[in-house]
Amino acid sequence: MIVGAGPAGLTAAYELMKHDVPTTVIEKDPTYVGGLARTVEHKGYRFDIGGHRFFSKNQEVEDLWTEILGPEMLTRDRLSRIYYRGRYFAYPLKAANALWNLGPLETVRCMASYAKARMTPVKDPRSFEDWTRNQFGFRLYNIFFKTYTEKVWGISTKELSADWAAQRIKSLDMWLVLKSALLPHRKPANRGDLVTTLIDSFRYPRLGPGQMWERVAEMRRARGEPVLMGRTVDRIKHDQGRVTTVVTRTVSGAVEEHKGSDFISSMPIRELVSRLDPPAPEKVRRAADSLGYRDFISVAVMIDRADVFPDNWIYIHDPTVKVGRIQNFKNWSPDMVPDQGKTCLGLEYFCFEGDGMWTSSDRELIERARTELAQLGICRPEEIFDGVVVRQRKAYPVYDDVYQAKVDVIRDYISAHLTNLQLAGRNGMHKYNNQDHSMMTALLVARNIVSGGGFDPWKVNADAVYHEESRVGDKDLTGRQVPERIAAGAAPKS
Ligand SMILES: Cc1cc2nc3c(=O)[nH]c(=O)nc-3n(C[C@H](O)[C@H](O)[C@H](O)COP(=O)(O)OP(=O)(O)OC[C@H]3O[C@@H](n4cnc5c(N)ncnc54)[C@H](O)[C@@H]3O)c2cc1C
Fold first, then answer.
1. Domain check: are 183 and 160 in the same one?
2. CATH number for the domain including 344?
3. Is 485 part of any domain?
4. Which of 1, 374, 405, 412 could form a disulfide with 260, with the two C-beta atoms 3.0–4.6 Å apart?
5. Are 280 and 324 in contact (CB under 8 A)?
6. Same domain? 339 vs 419
7. Does some domain include residue 377?
8. Are 491 and 405 in contact (CB under 8 A)?
9. Which of 47, 152, 266 to mutate to test the pocket of ligand 1 (most atoms within 8 A of CB)?
10. 3 C-alpha vs ligand 1 centroid, how far in Å?
11. Same domain as 297, residue 247
12. If we measure between CA atoms, which residue out of 129, 48, 67, 64 comes closest to residue 313?
């Protein structure tokens, strides 16, 4: 019995199918499988909930993608840049290109602000702002680090910890900066070079990431085991240390009971714990309730123009607009649009469920997208002929300074008291990782069912590699790094 038809749930189902283990898969969404990696369709235009690159250091996962989709997996070149005040900057940042784009006056200002920061650094920097300012000077920090970080995490860079900045941001080569400022004949990269330096490649299904999971769902259907769509977990009944039944409810109120010998959950652990019947002890419930999430809105707009920009996506550092990133889905795969004369852009807004952005109407959000695109000079308002809004709850599990201890409480309770329930996936394990990680954890829990145990999905590291030796709970090994607030004990509001 598998809860969730995202990458984790469907990978577990696929693996068990290979071993002829019958499974029931239930999914809350009435229409789409794929979870966060689904592809939404609107009048022939297809788009992701945030562009999904398929890339893994785990060869087994790469091979699985090939096995499921074969030639439908495309290899794509990548171009992504940063937009700031009407200019496009190479990403990853190149010092020379950055200063060239800023122009001579701003370059001199940046150099002066860098010199000042070196001569009078903030002593014992504790915040992201102080650390980054010490490293690059206030002006460069303000342009390249402040706005985007605040858009994504919804927390001021004054409140984020310096440790995260130190771990994440590699120093710009300040010697290069000096050379390009002092020796103007040493021109920075021209556009040709810029494109070359930015290109790397990744794989992507011809019809978007959802195609992968639609294919697995099709295979199940062909075997007479369709994914049960539009079913939300209402209660998880357990007795004498074992889960016995998952009770689901449809939008129309129809209640069903699903029994099984083994249970895999990829639903958010906060919800899972709240559905247990009888309820978990108070300590476990409190731990689950304290877990936080960052939510996400994607506004897809259709534009009556063939070529809008060449990138797969652009980071928007411009502080005058709320959009954080813009995807151009046609540049991921031409078949994401039904007509090559048109373009479909996905504008990404990071938010918290219930905030002003989240509660705006679809019409307001599409209007915002239209205004911001015009303001950024990307297209004219009248070129946009259609738009659609997707709100995604719990897009990012939040790591605060207490989350690991809380997850441990829940994990310990489940392993001791619900012995036939295994957790897998991103929100299923509260791990801010990519699809490959979710898939690897799912493969291991499926193998535990086939072979009677022995694999610990908590030992899959952030690169989706299973490390028998890794310390359980060591987030440096098992999870991507995310920012933390400075004050110990103060959890982010997300
Ligand atoms: C903006 C963004 C960009 C990303 N980019 C990339 C990328 O480039 N490359 C990459 O590899 N990964 C990327 N990811 C991460 C990737 O989407 C996730 O790692 C992956 O989808 C996690 O799979 P999952 O099955 O664990 O969880 P999910 O995808 O969250 O699937 C869980 C499923 O469970 C269902 N469910 C939840 N609650 C219930 C319930 N109560 N009852 C029944 N069903 C329920 C959900 O509807 C969902 O279908 C990105 C994520 C985001 C948000």
1. yes
2. 3.90.660.20
3. no
4. 1
5. no
6. no
7. yes
8. no
9. 266
10. 12
11. no
12. 48
Domain of 246, in residue numbers: 2-33+227-291+400-478
First to last CA, the chain: 31
Rounded distance, CA 471 to CA 493, Å? 29
DSSP string covering 410-457, please? Answer: HHHHHHHH-TTEEE-SHHHHT----HHHHHHHHHHHHHHHHHTS---G
- Summarised one tens digit per residue, pLDDT across range 223-271 is 999 999 999 999 999 999 999 999 999 999 999 999 999 999 999 999 9
Write down the residue that tokens 């905030």 correspond to. 355
Q: Is 53 in the pocket of ligand 1 (CB under 6 A)?
A: yes
DSSP code, position 387: E
| Domains contained in the chain, number | 3
Residue pair 176/184 in contact by the 8 Å Cβ criterion: no
**pTM, rounded to two decimals:** 0.90
CB of residue 4 inside a 6 A radius of ligand 1:
yes
From CA 421, how far away is CA 349, in angstroms rounded? 35
Q: What is the number of the ligand 1 atom nearest to the C-alpha of 231?
A: 43
- Whether 438 maps to a domain, the answer reads yes
Per the CB < 8 A criterion, the answer to whether 201 and 78 are in contact is: yes
CA distance 157 to 211: 38
Tell me whether residue 238 is in a domain.
yes
- In whole angstroms, what is the distance from residue 125 CA to residue 444 CA? 42
Tokens of 213: 């999971």
Q: Whose CA is nearest to atom 15 of ligand 1?
A: 434
Q: Which two tokens stand for residue 273?
A: 């714990």
Counting DSSP H helices and E strands in the chain, the numbers are 18, 19
Contact (CB, 8 A) for 189 and 197: yes
- Picking from 198, 214, 246, the residue at the C-terminal end of a domain is 198
Are residues 298 and 315 located together in one domain of the fold? yes
Strands 263-265 and 2-3: parallel
Tokens linked to 29? 């969404």
Specify the CATH number for the domain of residue 430.
Answer: 3.50.50.60
Residues 434/322, Cβ–Cβ less than 8 Å: no
What pLDDT digit, counting tens, does each position of 275-319 carry? Answer: 999 999 999 999 999 999 999 999 999 999 999 999 999 999 999
